[in-house]
Amino acid sequence: MKTALEILDAIRRGEATVYEVVSTFLETIEEKESIHNAFINIYPEEALERAVRLDEERPEHLPPLYGLPVAVKDNIAVRGMELTCASRILLGFESPYSATVVKRLERAGAIILGKTNMDEFAMGSTNENSYFGPARNAIDPDYVAGGSSGGSAVAVALGEAPVSLGSDTGGSIRQPAAFNGIVGLKPTYGRISRYGLVSFASSLDQIGPMGRTVEDVALVYSVIAGYDPKDSTSADVPVEPFSEYLNDPQDMTIGVDMGILGEADEEIVRGFYEVIAFLRSEGYRIREVEIPYFRYSVPVYHIVASSEASSNLARYDGVRYGYRAEAEHLEEMYYRTRTEGFGQEVKRRILVGTFSLSYGYKNEYYLRASRIRRLMKEGVLGLLDEVDVILVPSVPVFPWKIGEHPDLIGKVYKADYYTIFANLTGIPALSIPVGGGKFPVSVQLMGRHFDEKSLFRLGRRIFHAFNII
Ligand code: GLN
Predict the structure, then answer these.
(1) Pairing of strands 111-116, 39-42
(2) How far is the CA of 21 from the centre of ligand 1 (A)?
(3) Which amino acids bring their CB within 6 angstroms of ligand 1?
(4) The domain that contains 26 carries what CATH number?
(5) What's 162-204 look like in SS3?
(6) Is residue 172 part of a domain?
(7) What is the domain extent for residue 219?
(8) Euclidean distance between CA atoms 398 and 389, whole angstroms
(9) Cα separation of 165 and 100, whole Å?
(10) Among 87, 172, 199, 431, which one carries the catalytic annotation?
């Protein structure tokens, strides 16, 4: 299997046409989809047409992603393609415009192959909350793909696409990346435009790239990152050119918190220690630290995310988008559309969120959670004055069997234990596979706001020490 960089190189040298590249990926999709269900919609004709056009037009200086196929999570708008968020309530809704990230990809020469499967409205950690059935793990289809960007992870791991886009509100890029043995980045909040991303929890959501290597992820990132006036939370901070991400890391101090490892599977802890040993042997300073308020991540997240979701999802009422239930009166239409259109987990989040925000409870829940979140942010800023990056496992557990329904709070919600902190504090985090047995073990580098550069540089070293590619 070729990496995105190798594919782009082959096109640049004239060793492969864009048409050939796209056809190969479409063949793999054809072969694997009936089992793995990584896509909700595929657009083969449109992709091939664009490939032909790119081969014909081929300018002298090729833009950075010229001819590169990309799979896009189905909560990101692509003009003319259906946008479902894996929900019945959006069935048949076609996006009238493209997200900023999609425009940037296309301007750089990329080709969108289709829209990937996910948990409904990005709520979940297994992909089982999809109206279209679960995407299935790339390593063993009897196991969960992870979520919510499960389809984007599986597609890349299987070679259905060289790279993909996911979104990450509490771990939805990094957790499925870990479950399928690929690399995923949750960028700094504000680094990548959310214009055209369907909102789940607006203060946490970020779009990010997924790929088989750190270099591929860094390349896509360098194209889609940067200020966008269409997103009021987008930050006007310059993005370095891609070549800067490939430099070797300078001497760095890496913080590790041994107090949070108790939640993790033994094999995952062992893998984590191996990475620490490797970094030490390379001359990096390892410092034991305590990540502030880390253990409150899961409850704080569920209150904050559900509160924001309950207001964001109020717009799906059967009037403007997608599915509309038959009814005699307007009230009844709203009621039935939402009852029939939303799945169980989405309804649960709306209820939790509405409750947390309601009169008499707001102080106790939403405001208290927001206060802890602020303490986390202040604390991590202080910590990142002392260390350059923080190393934590990506996920405490390995994937489990589809349909096994382990207890929701105990296992499913806890699968996000290590990823949520970066969303609550807005810092960037990169998940990297580092070996393992049947299922991979992954670690995560978290860094200072807008310092994705350090994550790529150090991440590349870690990646190549533990992976043969
Ligand atoms: N698994 C988490 C949840 O269920 C995170 C989802 C996400 O990042 N979109 O909310």
Answers:
(1) antiparallel
(2) 33
(3) 122-125, 148, 168-172, 200, 305, 416
(4) 3.90.1300.10
(5) CEEEEEECCCCCHHHHHHHCCEEEECCCCCECCCCECCCCCCC
(6) yes
(7) 4-247+436-442
(8) 25
(9) 12
(10) 172
Distance (angstroms) between ligand 1 centre and the Cα of 1 equals: 30
Q: Is 172 a catalytic residue?
A: yes
CA nearest 220: which of 269, 273, 268, 183?
Answer: 183
Could you tell me if residue 320 is inside a domain? no
Instruction: Say what the pLDDT of residue 368 is.
Output: 95
Q: How many domains is the chain built from?
A: 1
Q: Kindly give the number of the ligand 1 atom that is closest to the alpha carbon of 173.
A: 8
Distance 302 CA to ligand 1 centre (A): 9
CB 121 within 8 A of CB 346: yes
Give the pLDDT confidence of 58-79 residue by residue, as tens digits.
999 999 999 999 999 999 999 9
User: Residue 362 catalytic?
Assistant: no
Q: Active site includes 125?
A: no
Atom 10 of ligand 1 has which residue's CA nearest to it? 123
For tokens 């640049």, name the residue: 12
**Predicted confidence (pLDDT) at residue 444 exceeds the cutoff of 80:** yes
Residue 133 located in a structural domain: yes
3-state secondary structure 236-247: CCCCCCHHHHHC
Question: Looking at the predicted structure, is the pLDDT value of residue 406 above 90?
Answer: no
Q: Is residue 233 part of a domain?
A: yes
**pLDDT band per the 50, 70, 90 thresholds, residue 469:** confident
Region 100-114: what's the mean pLDDT? 98
Determine the pLDDT at residue 409. 67
Instruction: State the Cα–Cα distance between residues 106 and 97, nearest whole angstrom.
Output: 13
